[in-house]
Amino acid sequence: MPAIVVLGAQWGDEGKGKATDQLATTDTIDYVVRTSGGHNAGHTIVINGEKFATHLLPSGILTPGATSVIASGVVVSPEALFRELDGLIERGVEGVEDRLLIAANAHVIASYHATIDKVSERFLGKNQIGTTGRGIGPAYADKVNRVGVRIADLFDESILRQKIEAALDVRNHLLTKVYNRRAIEVEAVVEELLQYTDRLRPLVRDTSLLLNQALDQGQTVLFEGAQATMLDVDHGTYPFVTSSSPIAGGVCIGAGVGPTRIDRVIGVIKAYTTRVGSGPFPTELFDDDGARLQQLGGEIGVSTGRTRRCGWYDAVVARYAARINGLTEFFLTKLDILGAWDEIPVCVAYEIDGQRVDEMPMTQTDFHHAKPIYEVFEGWKSDISGCRTFDDLPRQAQAYVRALEEMSGAKIWGVGVGPGREETVVLS
Ligand code: GDP
Ligand code: IMO
Ligand code: MG
């Protein structure tokens, strides 16, 4: 199976890090590739009880033998990149810089992007998106506006200066005249970025060429998604989305590989739902059950430390993710967390203005008005973290998994029963 995509099927934090790590350790994976987003992601991997979090780096950086790739669809903050690499080196992870490659045409996040992210959020007031404040949106805006700076530009000082001048020209008018801030100095940004060139140089490649050649040779490439389907700029809950395309189609754009090369598309999905930041969320719970999911699931953001909003599983979202991404399978995570409930509701459809709706509503207004229609399943009231096969799971947990599979539009390939690498049940 040479090309495998792992992506988020809900609003992020589904356990993509764990699913990637699971695949990378059970199969021989040659490359683990990030294709969109930036250091707004936070992926957790637990190896022998030790917890690691990756942000801009693919979680494959922790898999010896695999080469990690940051492809051209990613927005790269050199400062965040080296901070993360140094953090891993300090923790004793060896050879990280020897197994990392970065696309020459990936766009750069400089400190002014984060400044603009924060001031524009403040300007939005109660309509704010609740971004991570990492400069992701402004960096993608510059890219689409054709005033972005790319990694390769860092190796030509005069080009870099010209590009930053162009990028800051309009931005500085906006900062000083609209946001009432000080202008950003071109020279300060040039200096900020040039300090990374020597360390970046050996890592930079034409990663599209590299990955296509790897696939031609039958090597296995794992595309590790960040963010998620419902945060996709086209197909998510716009405007409460990120500024990239975390869906399967975005993988092809962000990596420079054709859709015909992809063999498996795995949607990672929690056995309930969480969301960080603003925006509609039909199954969100504001009661004790929501607080318990948050507490038992440890639902706190890996990147920003924000508390995640929690709710029951939403099969409408799951079916939508299966359709938008052409999922071949799901990886269902955090089933163990539901072991505390007598009964577990699952949203099977919505009620909108008195009508039953089975698919994602066409308009944002309808989605805001969607009320979940629940089917209630019997809980298993036990700790399943020691289960390793489907047969080990209690009867009620098996029924829950099979019911979700039935209503979600793709088969379930694996089930997470704990955060650890080994705490997984693989379904045959
Ligand atoms: P990602 O952004 O999709 O990689 O997910 P995050 O790392 O942000 O959040 C997922 C959290 O759930 C992390 O703390 C993981 O260690 C944890 N996790 C993943 N799978 C499981 C599981 O099956 N059971 C439990 N209890 N925790 C899990
Ligand atoms: P992983 O990869 C959850 C959310 C933010 C905000 C919106 C826009 O760990 O699943 P941005 O900074 O991207 O402009 O913020 O998107 N968001 C995430 N939520 N998990 C993530 O990544 C996220 N990355 C961005 O909270 O609502
Ligand atoms: Mg996360």
What does this structure look like?
- The chain is of the alpha/beta class and 428 residues long.
- The chain folds into three domains: 3-102 and 207-266, Adenylosuccinate Synthetase, Chain A, domain 1 (3-Layer(aba) Sandwich); 107-198, Adenylosuccinate Synthetase, subunit A, domain 2 (Orthogonal Bundle), CATH 1.10.300.10; 269-426, Adenylosuccinate Synthetase, Chain A, domain 3 (Alpha-Beta Complex).
- The protein is 33% helix and 21% strand.
- The strands form five sheets. The chain has a ten-stranded mixed sheet, sandwiched between helices.
- Helix 3 crosses helix 4 and helix 5 (157-178) crosses helix 6 (186-194).
- The longest helix is centred in the middle third of the chain and has 22 residues, at 157-178.
- The mean pLDDT is 96.
CATH architectural arrangement of the largest domain: 3-Layer(aba) Sandwich
Helix content: 25-40%
Structural Rg: 22 Å
Number of discrete domains: 3
List the helices and strands and how they pair.
Blueprint: E1 3-8, H1 16-26, E2 31-34, E3 43-47, E4 50-54, E5 67-70, E6 75-76, H2 78-90, E7 100-103, E8 107-108, H3 111-124, H4 136-144, H5 157-178, H6 186-194, H7 197-200, E9 204-205, H8 207-216, E10 221-224, H9 248-255, E11 264-270, E12 273-275, H10 288-296, E13 309-311, E14 313-314, H11 315-325, E15 329-333, E16 343-352, E17 355-357, H12 364-369, E18 371-378, H13 395-408, E19 411-416, E20 424-426
Parallel strand pairs: 1-10, 1-11, 2-5, 2-10, 5-7, 6-8, 7-9, 11-15, 14-16, 15-19
Antiparallel strand pairs: 3-4, 12-13, 16-17, 16-18, 19-20
Guanosine-5'-diphosphate is lined by residues 8, 12-18, 42-44, 46, 298, 302, 333-334, 336-337, 416-419.
